[in-house]
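== Sequence entry ==
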Amino acid sequence: MRTAQELYTTGIREHFAPALRSLGFHGWRHSFSLPDRDRWAVLGVHAEPSDGRVRYTLNLSVTDKAVWDRRRIRPDANAPTGLERWRAPIGDLLPVGGEVWWEIAPGPRWLVAVEDSVAAVRGYALPELRRRLRPEDRERYLGQAELDGVNGALATASVARIQRAELASGVLELHGAWSRHDPAAHAVLAGAARGFLSARDRRFAAVRVRDTLGRTLWEFPGRDDPGPVADQGPGNHPEPD
């Protein structure tokens, strides 16, 4: 029977790497990047042996090529340099949040972990990296440290945290692992939206809530906003695209 290290090496070489290349990444083994003229959008695979098994996780980073002095060699997403425009572990993008590791152990189902990690790249890492390579049409509103207060309130209500808060065309967009069929999430996020709107920030007049796939769940207008946006509760609007 092959060891966990042998299975891990085979899984990355024969399954993970080809799958990422089919998604548009360049690279092999433990470092992959999306082609872009101005930025390095990198995905790194970080592995650790653990009691006869191998566990691994994924890290993401975006670095301006203008500040990277080794332009022909992509940065290592597993080793932060402080030059990154953005950096995050894969767990920050997944609905579960927190640290996420895949584990390979000898046995007939060893490939399941590799396939699951490819699905995480396809569904979450790739869209986020592509979004961060687009022209700067969005302004970051608050960072994770500044969201700690409202995320603490969401955690108390057993509601997933806000992953991103961004400004787009006069609307504050909140992104997170929510479902429009969850009344608790709707109620708590409505309260969070009222809190954001009470600041009377002139840069936005409404709050839009989106899930991790970018689908609009609910929209909450400010009191002085005469537009058509309405506070739509769970089940009272069409299915997102």
Remarks:
- The longest helix spans residues 111-133.
